[in-house]
Amino acid sequence: MRADVIADTDAVLAAAxxxxxxxxxxxxxxDQLRTRLHExxxxxxxxxxxxxxxxxxxxxxxxxxxxxxxxxxxxxVTWYRYSATPTITMHPRVGAPRRMPIRRAGGRLVLTLxxxxxxxxxxxxxxxxxxxxxxxxxxxxxxxxxxxxDTSSRTESFLTPDSSPSxxxxxxxxxxxxxxxxxxxxxxxxxxxxxxxxxxCAVGVLSRSDEIGSGRIDSLLSAGRVAQRxxxxxDLASLVLRxxxxxxxxxxxxxxxxxxxxxxxxxxxxxxxxxxxxxxxxADRFTxxxxxxTVSTSVREDLLDRFGIFGVRLATALIRGGVRTSSELSDQMxxxxxxxxxxxxxDAQFRTRAAVLKTRGVLLELQQLLRTHPRDGLDEVxxxxxxxxxxAHTLRELDLLARARSDGLPLSDADAAEAxxxxxxDGTAAHTRLGLSAxxxxxxxxxxxxxxxxxxxxxxxxxxxxxxxxxxxxxxxRSLDEIASEIGAGRSLRSxxxxxxxxxxxxxxxxxxGEQTEQDKRRLRRKKRWNRLxxxxxxxxxx
Length: 543
What we know:
By secondary structure, the protein is α/β, with parallel strands linked by helices. The chain has helices at 2-19, 24-38, 53-61, 149-159, 180-194, 219-231, 248-255, 259-269, 273-279, 283-286, 297-320, 326-337, 339-349, 354-372, 379-391, 394-406, 413-422, 430-433, 442-461, 467-486, 490-493, 496-502, 516-539; strands at 41-47, 78-82, 87-92, 98-99, 104-105, 108-109, 121-128, 136-140, 170-175, 202-206, 243-245. A nine-stranded mixed beta sheet has the order 4-3-7-2-8-1-9-10-11, with helices on both faces. Strands 5-6 form a two-stranded antiparallel ribbon. The relative contact order is 0.10.
């Protein structure tokens, strides 16, 4: 399916290219869409000012690249993509792109605007030889809610433009507290990224979560409870698929931990308990001159800057608990930071769906191009868009997951939980969707998918099933059908009804005469659902 949707979209772009073969401006736009289709997923980091976006980005990269100060460069949208050699290219709003020198200070890149103001720069493109960037493009955006209206508007116009689709495929949205501005931005992103489909492609991050408990060793537990409360918030629940608490500074420091820092932390961990607790009672006390430790004031200031008081407390506790090497300390601190949970969620919900998410963005932009430059002979292009739309089941799964969190599903608690799992709420691997272990053998997978298909068909065909229930069942059956196809059991498990709804209206040929009346009734119901799906498709691609 992933390869097919890319190939199908390529074919649609090629068909459009034939129609516009004498229009150089449109052909250039089609080339840009083709590039977007074949490049990695675009994942933007957004949030209010000082939410910790650049710090989290560095943690995700595993290297201190993104500047975290308040200079001019942090007021410009900055792209981070894979490159075999480091490159920095600035794209002014007027004039040709400029290659910029690569300078670092304290490990971080030093970015300058070459005499331009932030308002005069479109974006900065950074290519860096990191394996993590081979499968995703990370986009750092200026803070929303800045005192500078221009700074906020750059992020809003980039991610939530008024008259065009969003440039990003998905968003990691950072928040320290839930504000009305957060909800407003996420609503706008949902609408511009998915149009009338209302698909949710955002994950919330409760950032700087170590500060929620005033830096106490149990701060992340408190942050976890706050994140769960935000997940249930009526305004936020339908806008993000999850809220993950992350201590970004801890994660960044842990992923870039130096041996000298480990040695200093080990010495602090070895202090007598009373001395250690007095030293770590506050950030101010930690950086005062002290005779209780040989770790100098300047080194302690650096540790505080790199890890925060929570990170220092956690590191010393882990060392006292048995950590013996810097690499072991790094691993355990990263695990405690919440970064792994966020990365696993992004992998499970966005990267595994990258083909369809990219295709959605490309087709939205293509539709806008067709409206702006109307031509005769576009029937094949429109038909191709519609075919891809009907096959893009991934977005319906994301929609179901969002509705499950915001409004609940019209099912029993057990069936609702199973529906979310089958739709990919815990991951998109076949065994995960079926609730089996990773080492489940093919027979167990096929047996399980048969049982689940039978169960969801019974729910769908129940005389008491309401319309909303039937719609959910149909989505889950389509997911199960794709699972069956993936594990090699698809052909024998699909019923005529499932085939029709997954592709095109059936004609009912070959039906047994004794079942004709009931089949006619079912066909009529399915035809109505098909018409409704077709109407939705005409409004918006991939939905």
